[in-house]
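Input (structure):
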């Protein structure tokens, strides 16, 4: 992505406009309106409206959750492969000790700083926020949704 703004810790969070600005607000509005209708006009139709609006919102949220989990699994695999290539031979046996959030955060570290940051993560038990704020040379990920 040549035109993209350089990514950093401050701006790496991304929104998925169709989900965040369309599906989620419509789903939440439908839940609120169906609850208002249930209070004003109790009955089977109103109960059905609440159930359907909650169901719609859950479908949208689960679909997004499944996509994010799939991306997390791919990132985990990519980072384990990258670590196996960049870590010294003596440290490679510790790759399985990383948690998923740690691996996902380490993807932003440049190849040059990854080995030292990875070892520091294992030795100090750094959180994903601590890892991201420790990165000096940010390796952008514009594909995460």
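Output (sequence):
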């Amino acid at each position: 992505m040549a035109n993209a703004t350089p990514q950093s810790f401050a701006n790496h969070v991304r929104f998925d406009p169709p989900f965040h600005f369309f599906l989620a607000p419509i789903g939440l509005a439908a839940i609120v309106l169906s609850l208002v209708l249930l209070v004003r006009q109790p009955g089977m139709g109103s109960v059905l409206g609440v159930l359907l609006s909650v169901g719609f919102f859950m479908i949208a949220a689960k679909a997004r959750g499944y996509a994010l989990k799939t991306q997390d699994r791919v990132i985990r695999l990519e980072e384990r492969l990258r670590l196996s290539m960049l870590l010294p031979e003596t440290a490679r046996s510790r790759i399985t000790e990383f948690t998923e959030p740690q691996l996902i955060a380490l993807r932003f570290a440049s190849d040059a700083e990854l080995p030292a940051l990875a070892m520091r993560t294992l030795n100090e038990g750094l959180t994903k926020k601590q890892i991201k704020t420790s990165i000096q040379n940010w390796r952008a990920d514009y594909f995460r949704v």
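Notes: The mean pLDDT is 91. The chain has two domains: 14-73, 87-138.
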